[in-house]
């Protein structure tokens, strides 16, 4: 089992964030990792290689990785454009992607809510997909299309 001390908080550029933001982001990271075994995926070039290596270690240890390729929740529950990270991770690691559609979560945990509410939600699974190549945006679009069809 991976230990919390093996995890590193996301890289925060000091010129963009003050000490309070750094502390809050780091605290959120460690609490998410501790309670939910969750970690953020980097949105830029910094830390991408480290994140990919970490995901590879998790997969190699028998863990399945759940990625929300949109990067954020929406107010109405519509499916937003998938970011290319899902294509890069699946292609580089050679792991299949199982499309999953989650409907109704905007009622369970609205975007700006602090606590979840009781509401109906539905989860639908698609067939596994093996993504290959270097066009990560096209692969993300392929996964997005598969999720929309569910």
Structure characterization notes:
The protein is 39% helix and 5% strand. It is mainly α. The chain has 2 domains: 1-40; 42-149, no CATH class. The chain has helices spanning 19-36, 48-60, 85-93, 105-108, 136-149, and strands spanning 100-103, 122-125. The protein starts with 18 loop residues before the first helix and ends with a helix. Residues 1-5 have low confidence and may be disordered. A two-stranded antiparallel sheet has the order 1-2. Helix 3 (85-93) crosses helix 5 (136-149).
For this entry, give a set of tags.
disordered N terminus; globular; 2 domains; two-stranded antiparallel ribbon; 39% helix; 150 residues; mainly alpha
Structural topology:
Elements: H1 19-36, H2 48-60, H3 85-93, E1 100-103, H4 105-108, E2 122-125, H5 136-149
Antiparallel strand pairs: 1-2
